[in-house]
Amino acid sequence: MKARAVVLFAVMALPAYTATITVGSVSGSFSNAQPLGLATIFNGSPSANDAEIWWGDSGVQGVGSGYRFDAIVPPAVSVTIPPNPSNFVQLADFTHINQPIPSGTAITGVDLAVNMSFTVDGNPVNQTFNYHITHLETSNATPCPAFQLSATPCDDRVTVSGPSSGTFTIGNVVYTLVLSFQQNNQFTNDFITEEQKSNTAGLYGRFSSRVEDVPAPEPASFLLLGAGLLVIASLRRRLKEK
Which of 114, 174, 184, 220 is deepest in the core (most CB within 10 A)? Predict the structure, then answer.
């Protein structure tokens, strides 16, 4: 009599998972400008949920150089697992008012918090996502850096990091929000800005998602499974002997 093969474990490919995220509100806020004392932050301005930071002229609002975050509420977006790398929606207009300023008065970086309320397949979520923006102020004297785009010497560079915090879980799916600028019809972490000009780029977000790993069975579970298989094998032998 031939023994039948018994399948103990099966690996199954998980189907793609899709969720719909509908955003109700977006706002931004700046904090922790570096170096300390060179900038003044204005959060919660009345115009279009914006936040501002100014430097280079004692931090006077509207004078010198600065950033402005103007929030935009995006349409509903579908999120898939694995995530679609091109599934970006605009969350804000990000403006760098790039003006010549005295040497040593520029910031090197600032934290940006993006506050959002939204639903995921009808489940309400209020979440803050935190990022760091690195600012590279050039000397405005040639030769310009290799990233130079404009004809005006010399462009500055604004870089947004990946999220430093801000994840949420629904069921066994973990979500976070990745930010990118859109410049020259491309999504990029670097926003290159022209001197003596207000430069605006779309600030876009992409919800990144993953399914949480199922915990591996503990060693004791394997021992119980092995003991059960031994009992089954013993019973089958006894039945054959009869």
Answer: 114
Task: Specify the amino acid at residue 2.
Answer: K
**CA distances for 212 relative to 46, 167, 168, angstroms:** 40, 13, 12
Alpha-carbon distance of 67 to 72, in angstroms, equals: 16
Structure tokens at 97: 């008012």
Peptide bond into 35 cis (omega under 30): yes
Tokens matching residue 123: 């489940």
Contact 72, 93 (CB under 8 A): yes
Radius of gyration of the chain (CA): 27
* Beta-strand runs (E) in the chain: 17-34, 39-42, 51-55, 65-71, 77-81, 89-98, 109-120, 123-136, 156-160, 167-170, 173-183, 186-188, 190-193, 197-211
User: What is the 3-state composition of the chain as percent helix, strand, coil, each rounded to the nearest 5?
Assistant: 10, 50, 40
What is the rounded CA–CA span in Å between residue 68 and residue 96? 7
192-204 burial, b at 16+ Cβ within 10 Å, e below that, comes to bbbbeeebebbbb
Sequence spans of domains, the chain: 17-211
